[in-house]
Amino acid sequence: MSAYHPLTEQEAIQIAGSLEGFFPAGAALQCREIGDGNLNLVFHITDSISGKSLIMKQALPYAKVVGESWPLTLDRARIESEKLLLEGKLAPGLVPVVYKYDAELALTVMEDLSDHIIMRQGLIAGTRYPKFADDISTFIARTLFFTSDLGMNQQDKKMQVKAFINPELCKITEDLIFDDPYTNSPNNSFDPAIQDAAEALWQDNGLHFEVALLREKFLTNAQALLHGDLHTGSVFVTPASTKVIDPEFAYYGPIGFDIGAVIANLLLNFAGQEHWTADADQRGDFRRYLTDTVRDVWNLFDKKFRALWDEHGLDRIASETPGYKDYYMNRLLQDAVGFAGCKIVRRIVGLSHVIDIDRIPDAAVREKAQRLALTIGTSLILNNRKTQSIEEVIELANSAASK
Ligand code: SR1
Ligand code: MG
C-alpha cells in the first residue's frame, strides 16, 4: 500500500491495525472519514472493544475546497508532522501526540481529540474557555521564541528555515489574504448584499498601502517558525484543555501573524454575535468575554515572551541594548493588529469563510455581521502602525459594534 494514493476507509483500518502496540489483539476497528476542512482527508478510527481510537490525516495532492484544478504539494504533510513534533517539545500538552508519519502516503497518525470540540463551534454555542488565553499565549510565546534568532542558535535557525520552506502553502496566504480581497479577483466570494463594501476595498489606496506593507512582512520577515493558520478552527478545546492542530501552513515568518490570527478569529465571532446571542444583554456579556480574551492573549503573550527573553535570550546586543525589547514587543503588537485586520477581511470577501458569520440564517442579520467585521478589519489594518496598546483594539471593536 506504499505508493501514494488517497486512502479508502478500509485501507485506513488496515494501516491502523498494523500500528505496533496501539490497538490490542482482536480489536474491532471501525473508520469514518470526517475531514471537513479545506485540504485533507481525516480518518477517525475506533476499536469498539477497547474504546481506543486515533486520527489519521492524509494530504490530498490538490486543494479539496476547490478541486483537482488546484494542485498542492504533499510535502505539507511532512511539514505538519515535523512542526507538530517540535511544538510537542516546546509546548508540551498543547498539541496532539504524533504516533507515526508515513512520507510515501503523506499520512500522519495522531492522538484522537474527540473529547474536545473545535473552538469555533464552541464559541458559536456560547461556551467560554477559561484556560484558553493562558494556554494559547504559552503556545505562541514558546513556539515562537525558541525558533527565533532570540531563542535558538542562529546558524541552526538558518537550517530550520530551509527545512520549513513552504512555498505553495505560503502562496495561498499571499493570494487569499494579502491580495485577492483588494481587487476584483475570481477567487473572491461574498454575499451580493455587500457588493458596495467589497468594491470599496478594491478602491481604497490607503488600505492597499498598509496591506502591501503587511504582505511584504509576510513575504520577507523570517522571524520565527509560525503555525501559519492559527484560527479557531485549528484549536481543539474543553474548558480545561487546549490543543493546537493543523500546522501545515508552517514556515518562517513574522511573529505577529500567529497572534493576529487568534485575535482575528475572536473578533470574527464577536461580529457573528449579532446572531448567536439574540438577547442584547447576553450579547454584550459574551462580547466582553471575547474582548477580555483578546486582551488576555496579548498581555499574557507579552509577559511570557519577555520572560523567556530575560531567561533564555541568546542574542547579546538584542538582550543588552536598553529600549530594544520594548521596541520589538511594540512592533509585534502592531504587526498582530495589522495581520488580524487582513485575516478578518479575507473571511468576509475572499475564498474560504467562517461559519461564525456564514451560518447566520437571517440575511439582514448576516449582512450586519459582515459589515461589522469589515469595519473592524479595515480599521485594524489602517491603524496597525499607530497602535500602542491592545486596549485600542478593544475600543475599536466596541465602538464599531455600538454603531
Ligand atoms: C485553499 S485553502 C483556504 C484556507 O484554508 C486554510 O485553513 C487557510 O486558512 C487557507 O487560507
Ligand atoms: Mg487547516
UniProtKB/TrEMBL annotation:
<keyword id="KW-0067">ATP-binding</keyword>
<dbReference type="GO" id="GO:0005524">
    <property type="term" value="F:ATP binding"/>
</dbReference>
<feature type="binding site">
    <location>
        <begin position="246"/>
        <end position="248"/>
    </location>
    <ligand>
        <name>ATP</name>
    </ligand>
</feature>
<feature type="binding site">
    <location>
        <position position="40"/>
    </location>
    <ligand>
        <name>ATP</name>
    </ligand>
</feature>
<feature type="binding site">
    <location>
        <position position="346"/>
    </location>
    <ligand>
        <name>substrate</name>
    </ligand>
</feature>
<keyword id="KW-0418">Kinase</keyword>
<comment type="subunit">
    <text>Homodimer.</text>
</comment>
<comment type="similarity">
    <text>Belongs to the methylthioribose kinase family.</text>
</comment>
<feature type="binding site">
    <location>
        <position position="229"/>
    </location>
    <ligand>
        <name>substrate</name>
    </ligand>
</feature>
<feature type="binding site">
    <location>
        <position position="57"/>
    </location>
    <ligand>
        <name>ATP</name>
    </ligand>
</feature>
<dbReference type="InterPro" id="IPR011009">
    <property type="entry name" value="Kinase-like_dom_sf"/>
</dbReference>
<keyword id="KW-0547">Nucleotide-binding</keyword>
<keyword id="KW-0028">Amino-acid biosynthesis</keyword>
<feature type="binding site">
    <location>
        <begin position="111"/>
        <end position="113"/>
    </location>
    <ligand>
        <name>ATP</name>
    </ligand>
</feature>
<protein>
    <recommendedName>
        <fullName>Methylthioribose kinase</fullName>
        <ecNumber>2.7.1.100</ecNumber>
    </recommendedName>
</protein>
<keyword id="KW-0486">Methionine biosynthesis</keyword>
<dbReference type="GO" id="GO:0046522">
    <property type="term" value="F:S-methyl-5-thioribose kinase activity"/>
</dbReference>
<dbReference type="Pfam" id="PF01636">
    <property type="entry name" value="APH"/>
</dbReference>
<comment type="pathway">
    <text>Amino-acid biosynthesis; L-methionine biosynthesis via salvage pathway; S-methyl-5-thio-alpha-D-ribose 1-phosphate from S-methyl-5'-thioadenosine (hydrolase route): step 2/2.</text>
</comment>
<dbReference type="InterPro" id="IPR009212">
    <property type="entry name" value="Methylthioribose_kinase"/>
</dbReference>
<dbReference type="GO" id="GO:0019509">
    <property type="term" value="P:L-methionine salvage from methylthioadenosine"/>
</dbReference>
<keyword id="KW-0808">Transferase</keyword>
<feature type="domain" description="Aminoglycoside phosphotransferase">
    <location>
        <begin position="31"/>
        <end position="278"/>
    </location>
</feature>
<dbReference type="InterPro" id="IPR002575">
    <property type="entry name" value="Aminoglycoside_PTrfase"/>
</dbReference>
<comment type="function">
    <text>Catalyzes the phosphorylation of methylthioribose into methylthioribose-1-phosphate.</text>
</comment>
